[in-house]
Specification:
mainly beta; Jelly Rolls; 8-stranded antiparallel sheet; 6-stranded antiparallel sheet
Amino acid sequence: MPFYHRLGEIPRKRHSAFRRADGALYPEELLGSRGFSGPSSLLYHREAPTGVLESKLLRDLTRAPDPNPALRHRHFRTAALAPARSAVLGRTMLFYNADVALSVVRPEAEDDFFFRNAQGDEVVFVSEGQGVLESPQGELPFSAGDYVVIPRGILHRYRLVAGPFRLLILETADSVRTPARYRNEHGQLLEIAPFSERDIRRPETLVTRDEAGRFRVVVKREDRLTELAVERHPFDVVGWDGFYYPWALNIADFEPRVGRFHLPPPVHQTFEAAGIVICSFCPRPFDFDPQAVPAPYNHSNVMSDEVLYYANAEFMSRKGIEYGSVTLHPHGLPHGPHPGKAEESIGAARTDERAVMLDTFRPLHVAAEALAIEDAGYLRSWLP
């Protein structure tokens, strides 16, 4: 989690009597991870957040794998996916394992419910669109290029302002954080980090809703969606403080590293969680030695599956990709630049590529629902 933040009204001491104008207590809610030992925030509601009117199973999300698991490099064209009504219910899963699941969605309408993922953290890369992530902890504006990090258990809803919208969702079993090597023993980002605390955006405006009625809340847990009806608007928080809240970092605020010769992918790392790393490939000058080969060398991805989401149509080492393409290069097979791309890169001044990379340390399964958008010929694309 980035650092301490507070919004709204809170009492001087935690767990002390904090009263409304009519004398009633503001109920506290501790929102956090790992029981009472992980990052947390303390929220003060107008009414207790526990009033549930009804609960029912909305949808089973049992993951179905590709029936043909033969090892091969793969390419999926997400631009072929139809728009969906919901940023939550309209997601198409592409890959998954025990540590992470990757989905995409092109929402066209705002949800009439609130969503809580109690199964994992979410890193939402906003490939297109502008809006506001609403939560009980305030409003967090987002726009194209933003990574919006939503720790598990935080209720939220997307307010769509200007579209079209295209979202890439990485759902992690472990907590998402900045890489340990970027931080000192106090948690502060070091001077060598490719971004700083100034680049991290937090909820800005706390909007308190004091409304009774019937409000829909969808909760994800154990690959199921449960729909609850609650008696109070869940955004009734008058104040909060702590280390646990949604936050955002724009990919354009990631400062890429450049060397005299090619630098390996870890220099692009942006986030980490158990079993995964997330990297950002950004526009940058190329390696500056006259004999440098800027395109990556062939590598075998030992113990690591590599996924790339192409946020524009340019990538220095690839042919045949388009905006919204997703490639999977699994460990067990070498891969590298497409024919001619290494030679083409020599002497080039820069690249304007923009891409998000997910590396996993356990094999990924391809979801059956992704097969409809697969480029079946991709495995042969390295042939002369």
